[in-house]
Amino acid sequence: MNSQHTPGIVSDRLSPEELAHNFEDLHAPLEPHEASVAADRCYFCHDAPCVTACPTDIDIPLFIRQISTGTPEAAAKTIFDQNILGGMCARVCPTEDLCEQACVRELAEGKPVEIGRLQRYATDAMMAKGTHPYTRSASTGKAVAVVGAGPAGLACAHRLAMLGNDVVIYDAQPKPGGLNEYGIAAYKSTDNFAAQEVDWLISIGGITIENNKALGRDFTLDDLAADNDAVFLAVGLGGVNAMSIDGNDKNGVSNAVSFIEELRQASDLGKLPVGRNVVVIGGGMTAVDAAVQSKLLGAEQVTIAYRRDRSAMSASRYEQDLAASHGVKLMFNVQPKAVYGNGSVAEIELEYTATKDGSLQGTGEAIRLPADQVFRAIGQTLITDAGLTLEGRKIAVTGAGRTSRDGVWAGGDCASGGDDLTVTAVAEGRDAAMDIHATLNGGT
Predict the structure, then answer these.
(1) Structure pTM?
(2) How many beta carbons lie within 10 A of that of residue 301, not counting itself?
(3) Of the chain's two ends, which shows fewer C-beta atoms within 10 Å, N or C?
(4) Angle value at C-alpha 317, between 44 and 372, nearest 5 degrees
């Protein structure tokens, strides 16, 4: 962060005990008796709407029935059959907008079956034993390069390895995991879970991870294509959109993504500097995570400023309410106009907006807020397209992730058609793996 010499952005705002409490697990894991009670609420619907709402098509009624009969590891196998990162997805999926929103109990009573917490109960039970539910098939002799060790890349690599292919994952970061390791709020993934999940996933064998290796810097797509039978690109969106306003370069203005990454990798949260008055520009999950964690670090006033109305905010209503419950102020229909301060940010000016003739426009009315720290959370961009055809700002794909180049697939946030969710990335990685395997091995 650009905050070393910024008045108001300081460390040690809270005691170690307060920080430990603030960053506890957002949803405590279910105890066995709690899981039994929660599972008993399921109607075990035929053609269950929750399954249709799940991007990875997990057989939710089946795994909940398995929990209710006292076999959580069988439930975990049901989950992992469709979503090998079911443990992390149980923690970070917007279940309130997916499976739980579709739950018949939600429609009838306004209180869905706690599908997400039940999924965590099952997957944690198996992972705690260190067992892996799958064994590798006989070697196919095929080699596949996966670029990116995030959810899409990991899911693709696991399925390919399980089917007998040899996989090398290249990742630009020092640690594997992608957004699961670097980009998710710390209170959603506690106890180093992302790293534990990667270790568990690759224990199937046949997967090698090479960190600090970036496409375009350390190798090219041509290099990978020459050395492998297929390539899967899961490079994510590493660039951050700019905020083109006066004062954007002042000390104290930085990217929310970098702040969250620094927080996730901090060994001592007390040493992480945070402002007294924090303003986050944006309306997605990154904006919410940056805002809530600023508050948890000890910021006094935290505001999310979003240019459109509440209904257009990509962060779910649950996440919006979570931010509000932590004392974050949400402002809608405001856009940044200028940042003021003598070298360091002291105020931010926001202009009110309105939609006229189908387009968002400034109204000319403005407000100034005190701010010693401003985070940009206004979207991310593709760093490298590797010379492939694009659709908008992402790599164009058809079918199960096929790109414009033969032998090259893509999935996750970097590819067209997705919704930038962890669970969707897992589904795309899994499905691409099946297509790659069939292509390389004669449709088997």
Answers:
(1) 0.95
(2) 18
(3) C
(4) 145
